[in-house]
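DATA SHEET
Item: assembly model
Revision: 1
Owner: S.N.
Input lines:
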Amino acid sequence: MPISSSRTSYLDHLACSHCGKLHAPDELQALCTNCGEPLLARYDLTAARAELDRDRLAARSDRLWNWRELLPLRDPARALYLGEGGTPLFRAPRLGATFNLPHLWIKDEGLNPTGTFKARGMAVALSRALELGAREFVVPTAGNAGGAAAAYGARGAARVHVYMPKDAPAANRVEAEVAGAEVTLVDGLIDDAGKLAAHRARERDWFDLSTLREPYRVEGKKTMGYEIAQQLGWRLPDAILYPTGGGTGLIGMWKAFAEMETLGWIAGRRPRLIAVQAEGCAPVYRAFHAGADRCKLWPNAQTAAAGLRVPKPFADRLILQTLRESGGTAVTVSDDAMRQAQHLISRYEGIAACLEGAATIAALNPLIQSGQLRPNEQIVCLNTGTRLKELQLH
Amino acid sequence: MPISSSRTSYLDHLACSHCGKLHAPDELQALCTNCGEPLLARYDLTAARAELDRDRLAARSDRLWNWRELLPLRDPARALYLGEGGTPLFRAPRLGATFNLPHLWIKDEGLNPTGTFKARGMAVALSRALELGAREFVVPTAGNAGGAAAAYGARGAARVHVYMPKDAPAANRVEAEVAGAEVTLVDGLIDDAGKLAAHRARERDWFDLSTLREPYRVEGKKTMGYEIAQQLGWRLPDAILYPTGGGTGLIGMWKAFAEMETLGWIAGRRPRLIAVQAEGCAPVYRAFHAGADRCKLWPNAQTAAAGLRVPKPFADRLILQTLRESGGTAVTVSDDAMRQAQHLISRYEGIAACLEGAATIAALNPLIQSGQLRPNEQIVCLNTGTRLKELQLH
């Protein structure tokens, strides 16, 4: 990729999302060394504002890496590029009509490498960690993150260890293995897989790619926010519905909106962010409506949507803060409603949406009925992955 | 999409690829009414050359529809857009090193809607046929074309009937059905499915989307040629390896190169096009090396790569002519070699390639050994689809 700005990245420092402690940007970092909360990347946006032109960046054809000056990688030649990001955002007129929502849009993250939005986070996290000297990785996953980590690991000649619940979708195990990752099936949920992964990481000096336990997967995910703004002509929609497991994309998009405001790229009201969870695993929903600032572990988490089977997201505080700041809300849907929505999306728009993505469509009716979505609003539903991995389960 | 040229499409007429007879462009057409051979779309390239700027088109973010003035649809608002085309083309350095090919590139068509390059042809063919008044469609398919036709049919509120061999991949049957298509399993191969589809089409006045029996799937596929040229800075590679079943993409890319020359967008030598077929079904390979201008039906066609299980491509004459004009060749690989190549692509680059796409990688060694590829050449392998649909077969 050509370098066309004075800096390849405007990354300035890392700051703790909770206590604010600063951390050096150009060495491998995990959590805040003071309070153990997630670190977030901060850029020199004053300089970036003076030097970057939003439309020039958007006219590139490097997808996620169109925004490379606002991503942490210093050397663009080290980007592990497989075509991640730059996914389409389009109207869903026939589906929208069934809900009396004429301005319903879908962003289809299923068109990413490995078929899900997990590619964004892993592309950036692995590219950057390799640049900073990491060589061996571990990731706990409910399913798709493992496949994505394995793919970028292969592309970067790095060893990847994947820990996933033994009831994770078979396709995810296979895709990680064919890309050369070592897969360990764990008797439990993703938090159990996470504990084991963290233990092994310490023991063997592997770099831990767990959700928000390193600062750069969220940077990859934030590009969804940049893209939505650009694709809508540098205007933001009224609401974005996001199926919420670990919540990285939600936090990332909100970060992107803040950065774009500081850059002078967007103005006006930000969208309400709406977290959609499964009835059988809804820790964010419960904490949000209880007015809590952290989630409690959801006991006996159960849903067929593996990506939503996260009983206590590590970044719960940031998720809840984001929902509240945006004026959004949290809602739950049943697995049956997800399956019905999956059917509707296929029949009306020809989109093969994963169960998690379909959950956002399933949430439309309850949100309309409670007055939290209005018919004239512009609404973006995030389909976080493709159904193609699930086809043979029928 | 904004209209920024004097015409939305420079489509001028249709011409028979064999006898040259002209056909009206703005009504539904199938084959040449004189000789029964495929029709090809011809554009007013003189006007287009004066009015279109290649870089302005390339800077759009409409993927396949970036080239809309050189596609047949008159009303851009009728494009059935699901994010088709605009797939990434990237170096495969680790994989290339194993073959001593430092300039090996992969174009990953797996990032299309429905996971394969079939989306390109179906997006254009269905958009255009609906514009011209067709309402119900039929397609025979070895697998992926059915899923793509079903998806665009759903998006366009059109009824789609799919005829596929009963041994076609289960995932293809399911994806067509979930998008609302009526699927009929046929005891036989794709040519048997094709006969049945053609019969039903006549009987019930369905529009037949069979490969090259209507003129616009090839227009969708030709955009791969436009993209490759643009992605390489308006220079073409030395060779393109293409897994050849029905051959639409091969014919389409060659057509694109001719159009771009007339437009003044490219100059110099065109790439050698190399058809890769399966050992168990190699009608093009056999005809090419026999010096024939048509293929003979391959008896007892057998290969696990469903897209290559085409015992006699309808457009055999055009395929053979294209290979010869380009100075290319045809080669076969075994199913085992495809599977090994699939493994290599995953391990070295993290790409989940379908068997057909992997066939192009499997062909590299034989082509190097026979001197038909040289180590210093720039080589593009087309991965025509994703492996994600096959994951649960393991």
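QC remark: The two ends of chain B are 42 Å apart (CA to CA).
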